[in-house]
Write a structure and sequence with these properties.
The complex is a heterodimer of chains A (350) and B (83). Chain A is an alpha/beta fold. Chain A is 16% helix and 33% strand. Chain A contains 7 helices and 22 strands. Chain A has a 6-stranded mixed beta sheet with strand order 10-9-8-13-12-11, covered by helices on one side. In chain A, strands 2-1-7-5-6 form a 5-stranded mixed beta sheet. In chain A, strands 15-21-16-17 form a 4-stranded parallel beta sheet. In chain A, β19 and β20 (334-336) form a beta hairpin. Chain A is globular, with a radius of gyration of 22 Å. In chain A, 36% of the residues are buried. The model of chain A has no long low-confidence stretch (mean pLDDT 89). Chain B has 83 residues and is mainly beta. Chain B is globular. The model of chain B has no long low-confidence stretch (mean pLDDT 93). Classes of the chains: A alpha/beta (350), B mainly beta (83). At the A-B interface, loops of A face loops of B.
Chain lengths: 350, 83
């Protein structure tokens, strides 16, 4: 549900954007990602898990997990939570037979028993040998994630560019930008690489490559940076790696239900896209940053039922749901009916 | 290999623009024995450390030049045009 206009939001409400998802019209605003527009429209199931076809919803909402991969304009495996929405985009669910809500392939999860034990290989069905050709037909189409358009043609050209810099900063968060500013103030040529599209103008005196990915550090201080159709070969005298930290999921029964998210997802949905992430929420976190998300939720009009600090010893937690969607969580024997659980086991360096 | 090599004409360039023709060898005198000739043709010192070698700026000025390179670290110590 979209909230009233808030300061600092990334969307431009004066510029609506329309695209289709599974043939149905979806409306969003300029600045929305495909994922945020779908979420604002009420969509919660974004994909199905690779093999057992369990429903998957937004988890990180920051391009760090595979839960929201869809086919966009014929390109498979696009993480729609960070892919900008654009007018006329054709978005489709992938890895499903039927629809995201009713996926026929979910039988692999229900079957259980000797057919699909945890971690089973499709190779299991190579015996009896005589039955393999029969199985193979089915399995070939079940294996793999997304389908490639066999008739797709390359449009536009791809190129390589060389860049030389005094300082290369990998990661354009607050730490990275601060380092970049300090270096630029000393008169050095600074290149900043960030995975997200830039917000507003790049700070003066810096060269910003975004959205782009630094692929690694190679011999001679070579850092290839993939930025869409251009591969920049950046050579720098010094590097700053400011890649931040990622929140870790919490392990408990039922923790893969749709409706269990990381705090970063709430942060982005509320502050960037002005969306109320849920109606009733429980917060479980192992750091102050995660616990503080309760304030963001209240700010967005979500009722926070309980905030649990996971650092205070072990808790008995289990989540339950119907059809893969969260409907409640039990903590130390107390049950909370909620449609959102924000769970974080603390951050780990990326 | 992704280090930079300073061409005496063009300055520091990506090493992929160059072709390496191996270490500098000394041509035997007027009428070499078969052993000397085969050593000249087939044997190399293959040092682990600073080595003088021939390079050719294939995708640039097409000059042949000499470089001194540390074979362990690919650090290029000097480059010069031949006398």
């Amino acid at each position: 549900m979209r909230l009233d206009a808030r300061p600092g939001e990334r969307i431009d409400r004066s510029e609506p954007i329309r695209f289709t998802f599974e043939g149905k019209l979806v409306e969003g605003f300029a600045g929305d990602t495909i994922g945020s527009a779908l979420y604002a429209g009420g969509r919660r199931v974004f994909s199905r898990s690779f093999k057992y076809h369990r429903p998957r919803g937004l988890l990180c909402c920051s391009g760090a997990c595979p839960n929201c991969m869809m086919e966009v304009d014929g390109v498979p495996n696009v993480r729609v939570c960070v892919a900008p929405a654009h007018e006329g985009a054709v978005v489709k669910a992938q890895n499903v037979r039927g629809s995201l809500e009713r996926d026929l392939m979910a039988v692999t999860d229900k079957f259980g028993g000797p057919f699909t034990p945890v971690g089973f290989y499709y190779r299991t069905m190579i015996r009896p040998r005589a039955a393999w050709p029969l199985f193979e037909k089915f399995l070939r189409s079940a294996a793999g994630l997304g389908t490639i358009d066999k008739h797709a043609r390359r449009t536009g050209r791809y190129d390589v560019e060389h860049r030389h810099a005094d300082v290369l900063v990998i990661g354009g968060g607050s730490a990275g930008l601060e380092a970049a500013r300090a270096a630029a103030a000393g008169g050095e040529h600074v290149v900043v690489v960030d995975e997200n599209a830039p917000r507003g103008d790049a700070p003066a005196g810096l060269e910003l490559l975004a959205p782009a990915t630094a692929l690694g550090i190679y011999e001679g201080g070579l850092v290839p940076v993939a930025a869409g159709r251009i591969l920049y070969k950046v050579r720098a005298k010094r590097f700053v790696v400011a890649t931040g930290a990622l929140e870790q999921p919490v392990i408990f029964p039922g923790n893969d239900l749709v409706g269990i998210v990381l705090p970063e997802a709430v942060r982005r949905l509320v502050h960037d896209f002005s969306i109320r992430p849920g109606e009733k929420a429980v917060v479980l976190a192992a750091d102050d940053d995660g616990l503080a998300i309760a304030d963001d939720l209240r700010d967005a009009g979500t009722q926070v039922l309980e905030v649990v600090d996971l650092r205070n010893g072990p808790h008995k937690i289990s989540a339950s749901g119907t059809k893969g969607r969260l409907n409640g969580v039990g903590i130390e024997g107390v049950r909370y009916n909620c449609d959102l659980v924000v769970a974080s086991g603390g951050r780990q360096p990326a | 290999m992704s280090f930079l090599l300073a061409c005496p004409n063009c300055g520091p360039r990506d090493v992929n623009e160059f072709h390496c023709q191996g270490e500098v060898t000394i041509r035997p005198k007027a009428s070499p024995s078969r052993r000397e000739l085969s050593e000249y043709l087939y044997f190399r010192r293959n040092v682990a450390g600073a080595q003088r070698e021939w390079w050719y700026h294939r995708m640039g000025c097409e000059a042949w030049f000499l470089a001194e390179r540390d074979t362990r670290t690919n650090e290029v110590l000097t480059t010069e045009l031949p006398e």
